[in-house]
What does this fold into?
Amino acid sequence: MSLNVLLARQQSRWRFSFWLIVSLLIVVCFFSLSVGELWIKPWAPEGDLEQQLLLQLRLPRLLAALAIGASLASSGAVLQVLLGNPLAEPGVLGISGGASLALVAVLFFLPFAPSPMLTMFTAMGGALLFTMILVGLSRRRSVSMTRLLLIGVALGILSSAVITWAFYFSDDLSMRQLMYWLMGSLGGVNWQQLSLLFFIVPVLAVLCCQGEKLDILMLGELHARQLGLNVTTLRWKLILMVSLLVGSAVALAGIIGFIGLVVPHLIRLMLGTENRFLLPLSALAGGGLLVVADTLSRILLPSADLPVGVVTTSLGAPVFIWMLMRAELD
It folds into this structure.
């Protein structure tokens, strides 16, 4: 079988997977808008109550889940290439923890409630700092993949410890916000906070277009430079975009783990490693997975919402353990 035939088959698999994921995403979105304490037909809400419930609660929550899931999944895929570590993910590496730690500092030291924009840029700063630490360590030959992963986990634990300490020095309102950021929740998202989407969507679109450059970068820095790629500029651009996306995700919903780990890994396992296809598919699948997790968090308990971070961790932790065991066997 010729190389051209193999390439054509591979591309047809990617295209089929793209339309399959898009179709499933549409179904999942309609189901998420419909289900809850009150069943609603999204295309024909009956009465003012259903319209308000749909427009003020469920639709903002759905849009936030799509944007956050897409941001975390695509960021995870990029980090796995940048760090050369298939287990890299914003939550596991402590990047999300760095963003939330910066938010806690702002919450405690500012005499007023931060605006959505200030929240996003604060979280972005924390995520950027932790990302730079990890990328800097990954370029040192003395730091193995396992040690880098452990450093990231330690940074995440340190962030969680500081946030937990903050509970004992906060008032009731601050404590609720801290719990919101620590456990991950989409319950408080409103249209004002969704103004962050004007930043998230363009950055996400640009990030998903970096796949061909990432494919070249995977050949090694020397080969990438010989092919005309400015590796330093590309690395900094990717770091900034990942930091903005992770910071925005944390600002909207707190720490939500394992989306950036599970989604890219499973797509690579099933379809291959071409980043020009992997990044957009990861974004779509990540958004869909978080919508499913958020829907489950709303319907599993009849009287309360589960934190969506609990649901994603319950789904992702077994996959993470399996990946660690698989890497050990390899």
